[in-house]
Amino acid sequence: xxxxxxxxxxxxxxxxxxxxxxxxxxxRQERYGVTIITGRRGSATVTAVVGGMxxxxxxxxxxxxxxxxxxxxLIFTGIAGGLNPALQVSDVVIGTSLHYLETNTAIxxxxxxxxxxxxxxxxxxxxxxxxxxxxxxxxxxxLQEAHQEALDKSSQDACPQTDSHNRQCPVAKTGEIKRDxxxxxxxxxxxxxxxxxxxxxxDQFNTEAEVLDLIRSTIYADCEEMEGAAAAHISAKNRxxxxxxxxxxxxxxxxxxxxxxxxxxxxxxANAAAAVTLGVVNSLIQSES
Length: 289
Hints:
By secondary structure, the chain is α/β, with parallel strands linked by helices. The chain has two domains: 5-140 and 184-288, 3-Layer(aba) Sandwich (Rossmann fold); 149-183, no CATH class. Helices cover 39% and strands 26% of the residues. It contains nine helices and eleven strands. The protein has helices at 13-21, 55-69, 105-108, 122-134, 143-157, 174-182, 209-219, 228-237, 263-288, and strands at 5-10, 24-31, 34-41, 44-50, 73-82, 92-100, 117-119, 138-139, 193-201, 223-225, 242-251. The radius of gyration is 20 Å and the shape is globular. Residues 5-281 form the Nucleoside phosphorylase domain. Pfam families: PNP_UDP_1.
């Protein structure tokens, strides 16, 4: 994969700080309502944009970044609220799939790039996994994987086809599947974890339990944020390979105001995502040389 020009996008300044510090000759400017940072990492030119929060801001920033940098790849990095009970603060979601919430995706898919949801480039996902494993992370089950495991287990536990009275046996009970999903909670607090999973992108900071359960049960999202699917959408529209890397900063269900009480956790998560992103950048440089 060619990686002479690498684009990095995030929403908040804290999410780019560690990456900016790692660039040689980094220059910062404020233009078009965003922060643009350019520098070099090894043989590659890295252009980063801090685009602000929300889907519209992310889409506009992604298009600007692509037009300015003409990148070979685009990496979205930053923090997100956790939906997967197996993930704790600073654990990481590699967004192998990204979905809009509160959106009629079938109508959106009537236009280029003709997609209702979006996927990350597999080579970039593998680079992200390599980066995570070098940093000591261990892979755990995404909600989609845990759900499938629960279905498989319930099918094995049920009688093959019928019981002694020739009645069909149930495949699985909802409560049993839910218990199996929550059984993937982290066993060792000192071990950091990651998933290859699903990112939900919302216009809302969702806190209601019913809404969060619906997100978990319909698209099996491992985290929720406000920009990723929009950035993936614009990348797909421009045919730019994309990957989203999100570190958990808090658990979904907490109020937005409560985030002020643990700013350290937000910075820690932002730095975790940035460290993984730098590992991806390094892999891209090495694959080019």
